[in-house]
Structures are given as C-alpha cells and as structure tokens.
Amino acid sequence: MSINWFPGHMAKARRQIEENLSKVDVVIEILDARIPMSSQNPMMNEIVKNKPRIVILNKSDLADQNMTNQWMNYFKSIGTYPIALDARSNNVLKRIEPVAMEATEEMFQRMEARGINRRPIRAMIIGIPNVGKSTLINSLAKRKAARTGNTPGLTKSQQWIKAGNNLELLDTPGVLWPKFEGDVGLKLSLTGAITDRVVHLDEVAIFGMKFLIEHDKETFDTFYKITNYDVDDIVSVFDAIGRSRGMLMSGNEVDYEQVTNRVVYDIRNGKIGRYTFDEVNDDN
Ligand code: G4P
C-alpha cells in the first residue's frame, strides 16, 4: 500500500481533505462492511465534524448479512446515514441519491428560507485505500475509469463530476490512512485493504483460521475437507489443509507458505463464506 506513515504526511493529507470538505454538503465515507471499525480512519469524526455523513458499508456482498444489519443500526444510532452496498453493482446511484437528499434536506431548506435556490448536492468520497472509492465513483458517474491514487490526501486539480441530476462529486476521493493497533493490521490484511508486505502473512492466515474455527468450524472443515486436527495446535491445521489439498514439498512435507497464501486468498475473496470480523460492541 502506497501509504506514508509519517506524521507529516498524515497531517498534510488531513489538511487537504479539510480544505475540500468546505466545498461539499455531505461526506460519503466508505468502509469495508467486513471491518467497519478497523477500516475507519481514527480521526474521521474530528475531520468531518458536523457535515452530514453517509457511511457506505461497502463490499457487503462479502460480509455477514446479520452483522451488517447490526452495523447499520449502530451507524444510524450515531446520527450517520448508513448504506450497505456492493459498489460494483449498477444501482448505486439509486441507493445513494435519496439518502444524500435526506441528509442535506435541512440545509437546503435553510438556504431556501434565505432566498437561495436549490442546486445539486455536492459530495466528497473519503476512505482508506482499497475500500472501493474509485469503484464507487465509476459506478455513480457511470464511467469506466476513475483516477486511482492511494496516497493519502487529494491531487491538486479537482473537478466536479455529475452523478445523476441531483448529485455532484469531487472526482478524486480523499484517501485516509487506517489505524494500526491491536489486531487491526491483521484484519486489514485479511480483507485485502493492505498488501502482504506490511504484515506477516502467516500471522494473517493464523488469525483467519482461528476466527473460522471459532465462528464457523463446520463450514471451514467442509470447505477444506479436513477432520483430524487439534484446534489448539495451529500447526496441525496447516498440516491438515496442506495434506487435504496436496500442498506438499519434496519429502512429502506440507508447504506452509502455499497453505498460508491459499487460506488468506480464500477468506479475502469470500470463497469460504461471508464473514464480518469487527463486532458491534460498547467500545465503538
Ligand atoms: P480504492 O479506490 O478505495 O482504493 O478501491 P478500488 O475502487 O480500487 O477497489 C479495490 C478493489 O475492491 C477492487 O478489486 C474492486 O473491484 C473491489 N471492490 C470494490 N467495491 C467492491 C464491492 O462492493 N464488492 C466486492 N466484492 N469488491 C469490490 P481489485 O481486484 O483490486 O480490482 P479489479 O480487478 O476488480 O478491478
């Protein structure tokens, strides 16, 4: 991930986003529905302040539906406007437009009371790398390619792009850095938000295996066709998968690297099932 972690870069990215915020009526914050807390920038509340905020729980096609409903309720309860979405689908404008209108209605009524005519709603998309910002811009603007740049902040030349009749978007999304504490890095990697260089992939695979064994063991066992392993001995899980899938090296040894890559790939891409790794709890 081409993110710079230096405080100076973060401050600059934040400043650029704050400057652009003054030009918009509503913020569209994109989170990964599988990790709504871990994919949020830790300073989001401070940065967005009192602007109405639409929270897109994106990649909801890969997340646990029941947990997504819980997260929807949570985001409603804190006064934001959540939408569970697959940014690649072709109905995103229909889903977002009415919510953007609802979120800005009060502001436009105040403007009208002062004699100012209605105009299209101006919005800005913000999120950490890989949550689907460009995909959403493309879908909203019904075009093929949006400029992608995963460096936090924004590029200099900004343009408004039209999304339907009522919405205008800044063409370059604001890119923020994720937080990086506790097991957040593991979750970010497991969902593909960060590349494999930043964390040790074997730790990510172990985290994923343990999660599945704890939450959905039957599906996990069936998917890899494994039975004989010790839940408390993670090496035995690698061995079971390696032998079941024929991921072996010379001498009939299990190729742990191959198992690691496979498990991370399968979880990341929803091959085993739909999972949400962040739970709604009192700490949110
Ligand atoms: P970014 O601008 O925030 O960095 O993210 P971007 O749109 O580039 O999306 C990152 C990856 O996530 C892309 O996959 C994209 O197709 C995928 N994606 C975006 N939204 C959704 C969604 O709602 N559901 C699912 N399942 N995937 C989504 P990629 O493999 O990196 O690229 P591509 O080969 O799909 O183009």
How would you portray this structure in words?
The chain has 284 residues and is α/β, with parallel strands linked by helices. The protein folds into 2 domains: 177 residues, Rossmann fold, CATH 3.40.50; 69 residues, Conserved Hypothetical Protein Ylqf, Chain: A, domain 2 (Orthogonal Bundle), CATH 1.10.1580.10. Helix 7 crosses helix 9. The chain is elongated and about 80 Å long. It binds guanosine-5',3'-tetraphosphate. The site of guanosine-5',3'-tetraphosphate (G4P) has 17 residues, from helix 5. The site of guanosine-5',3'-tetraphosphate has 17 residues, from helix 5. Its main location: cytoplasm. GO terms for molecular function: GTP binding; GTPase activity. Pfam families: MMR_HSR1.
Labels describing this entry:
284 residues, alpha/beta, Rossmann fold, Conserved Hypothetical Protein Ylqf, Chain: A, domain 2, 2 domains, 9 helices, elongated, binds guanosine-5',3'-tetraphosphate, G_CP_dom, P-loop_NTPase, GTP binding, GTPase activity
Mean pLDDT: 90
Tell me the number of helical segments per DSSP (H or I, 4 or more residues long): 9
Strand content: 5-15%
Ligands bound here? Answer: guanosine-5',3'-tetraphosphate
The backbone outline, from C-alpha atoms, is elongated
- Low confidence ranges: none
| DSSP strand tally | 7
Rg estimate, integer Å: 21 Å
How many domains make up the coordinates? 2
Structural class: alpha/beta
CATH architecture term of the largest domain: 3-Layer(aba) Sandwich
CATH topology of the largest domain: Rossmann fold
Helix-strand topology string: HEHEHEHEHEEEHHHH
Q: Assign a percent range to the helix content.
A: 40-55%
Please identify which CATH superfamily of the largest domain we are dealing with: P-loop containing nucleotide triphosphate hydrolases
Major beta-sheet overview: 7 strands, mixed
The end-to-end span amounts to 26 Å
The CATH class name of the largest domain reads Alpha Beta
Domain CP-type G: 10-178
Binding site for GTP: 58-61, 130-135, 174
Protein name: Ribosome biogenesis GTPase A
Main location: cytoplasm
